[in-house]
Amino acid sequence: MHNIIFSKDRPLQLALTIDSIKKNWGGDIDVIFTYSTKEYHKAYTELINEYEDVSFLKQSTNLFNDVIKAIKTRNDDYVCFFTDDDIVFQRADRYLSSEALHAALDDTACLSLRLGCNISKRDIGGNVIDDVIPRLFPCTNSLMKWNRTSVPTGGYWSYPLSVDGHVFKSEVISEIMKEMSSWVQHCKRELTFRYDGTPNMLERLLQRFWFELPPLMAAPKFSCVVNSPNNRVQNSVLNRSGDHFEIRPLYALEIFNSGKRISIDGLMDSDPNISCPHQELDLLSYLEKK
Q1: Which residue, of 24, 166, 201, 265, has the fewest CB within 10 Å?
Q2: Is residue 64 within a helix (H) or strand (E), and if so which, with residue range?
Q3: Residues 6 or more apart in contact with residue 184 via CB below 8 angstroms
Q4: What sign for the dihedral angle of Cα 89, 95, 96, 102?
C-alpha cells in the first residue's frame, strides 16, 4: 500500500497521522508538505529526522504532478490519500492483503476507510445532522458496498473522490491526476482559473471525474479513519474548525517544539465514539513526551 499525506503548517498533527498509519494501517508513506514560515520549515526538518522511513516531498507549484511522481516512484497497485488532520483511530490492516484489496476495489470507485455502519451523522458547515446508511449490497463479512449513484449527491455516501482515507487503484488515480495537471496548466496560461495548490482545491477539482468512476463504493463494516478539524491552515475552502477543541496552529507549533507529541495509544485507549467522518477530538488530552 502506498500512502500519501498532504500537509501544511501542522507538524504536531502530522506526527499523529503518521503514527496512526504505522500502528493501525501500514504500507509506505510519502508526505507532500509545504509551510508558510521558517519556523514551520524547521519543524518539518525535525520530522524528517524523526521518521527516517517516511519520504518527505516538498510541494511544488503543481500538486497534481507531485502526486503523479510519488505514485510512479512507489509503483504500488493501490494508493491511499490522507490529510494531516486525519487519524487511523482503530486497526485497519486486515484490509491490506491482496485478497481484501481486490475484493474491495475490483468493481468499485474506492475503498473508504472513513465510512462504516457506525457513521450516522453528517457535518454540513458545522451543523451535524442525522445521516442514513444507504441500502447495502451483499458482500464479505468485513466489507460493505453500496451504489453511490442511488444516494443524493453532496453527502459522504455519494462522495468517492475524497483525500480523507480513501483508497484507489493507482493506475486510475494517476490518469485522473495527469488530466487535471494538463487542464490546470492550460487554465493558468489562459488566465481563466485561479489554482492555489492546496489539497482542498485538488479535491474540489477531482469531483469533475465523479461520473467516470464505477457506481459502487466500498467501506469496512466499522470506520477506521476520522478527520479531526481542530484548526484550518488555508483560506481557499472555509471549512469549519475548532468549534469544540480548537488547537491554534502556532500553539500547536509551540507544543511540537517543546518535544511533546499526541499519543495514538492514548487516543485509542480512550475508545473515541466516532459517528461522523469529520469529528473534533480533544487531541491535547493525549500529549506525551516523545
Answers
A1: 265
A2: helix 63-74
A3: 62, 64, 193, 195, 205
A4: negative
Pairing mode, strands 127-130 and 121-124: antiparallel
2-289: CATH topology is Spore Coat Polysaccharide Biosynthesis Protein SpsA; Chain A (3.90.550)
C-alpha span between 131 and 198 (Å, rounded):
28
Q: Are 93 and 16 in contact (CB under 8 A)?
A: no
Q: Is 223 left (phi over 0), alpha (psi -120 to 50) or beta?
A: beta
For residue range 51-104, what is the model confidence (pLDDT) as tens digits?
999 999 999 988 999 999 999 999 999 999 999 999 999 999 999 988 889 989
Q: Rounded distance, CA 101 to CA 94, Å?
A: 10
pLDDT of residue 123: 77
Asked if residue 169 has pLDDT above 90, the reply is yes
Q: How many whole angstroms separate alpha carbon 222 and alpha carbon 67?
A: 29
pTM of the model as a whole: 0.93
pLDDT per position as a tens digit, 177-217: 999 888 777 766 655 556 677 888 899 889 999 999 999 99
Q: In 191-248, which ranges are continuous DSSP H helix?
A: 199-206
Asked if residues 246 and 66 have their Cβ atoms less than 8 Å apart, the reply is no
| Cα maximum dimension of the chain | 53
Interior/surface letters 248-279, b for 16+ CB within 10 angstroms, e for the rest: ebeebbebbeeebbbbbeebbeeebebbbbbb
Q: Say if residues 74 and 30 touch (Cβ distance below 8 Å).
A: yes
Dihedral angle of Cα 48, 85, 111, 114, to the nearest 10 degrees:
150
Determine the length of the chain: 290
- Count of other CB atoms within 10 angstroms of residue 195: 19
